[in-house]
Amino acid sequence: MEDYSFLEKFIRENYVAVCAVAERFVDRDTAQDIAQNVLFKFWENREKYAEVESLDDFLFIMVRNEAISYLRSRKTESERHEVWEGEREEERDVFHALVEEETNQLLLHAISLLPEQTAHVIRLVLSGYSNKEIALLVNVSINTVKTLKYGGIRKLREYFESRKF
């Protein structure tokens, strides 16, 4: 079994400095994770790094590279999320447009089933005309417009309530 006292000493001597360097790039919790990863990677491959002239410089480079890799992965993940959200929003928009179009078609069909003058008044109401404007356009009294309008709305409501959508 390997003697872990050297590893423990190595960590104690370097952890705070490595953490401080990592915090220049990322938040504290992430910096602690990066510091642990760098120290263990270095320790596991210490035979390969026997020729390193400056341990501090080498650890700094390892921390910087690890932090940059982390930031790149976060950016990529964020971009993927934005694309996914954009696709979902686009799908919702298409879905809503389809539902709106189908609803409009159903409403137009239901209006076409109304008596001619009532249908004409309802179309004008849906176009944004006021009762007074409709009365002038159709050449009837405002009370007749109100009667046709509310009668048409009642018949449309009955039509849609009787349908099972």
From TrEMBL:
UniProt KW keywords: Sigma factor, Transcription, Transcription regulation
One Pfam family cited in the UniProt record for this chain: Sigma70_r2
Sequence ranges assigned to domain RNA polymerase sigma factor 70 region 4 type in this UniProt record: 105-154
InterPro entries linked to this entry: RNA_pol_sigma-70-like (IPR039425), RNA_pol_sigma-70_dom (IPR014284), RNA_pol_sigma70_r2 (IPR007627), RNA_pol_sigma70_r4_t2 (IPR013249), RNA_pol_sigma_r2 (IPR013325), RNA_pol_sigma_r3/r4-like (IPR013324), Tscrpt_reg_LuxR_C (IPR000792), WH-like_DNA-bd_sf (IPR036388)
GO MF, one example: sigma factor activity
Stretches assigned to the RNA polymerase sigma-70 region domain: 11-75
GO biological process: DNA-templated transcription initiation
Entry superkingdom: Bacteria
Annotated family: Belongs to the sigma-70 factor family. ECF subfamily.
Protein name: RNA polymerase sigma-70 factor
Taxonomic classification: Bacteria, Pseudomonadati, Bacteroidota, Bacteroidia, Bacteroidales
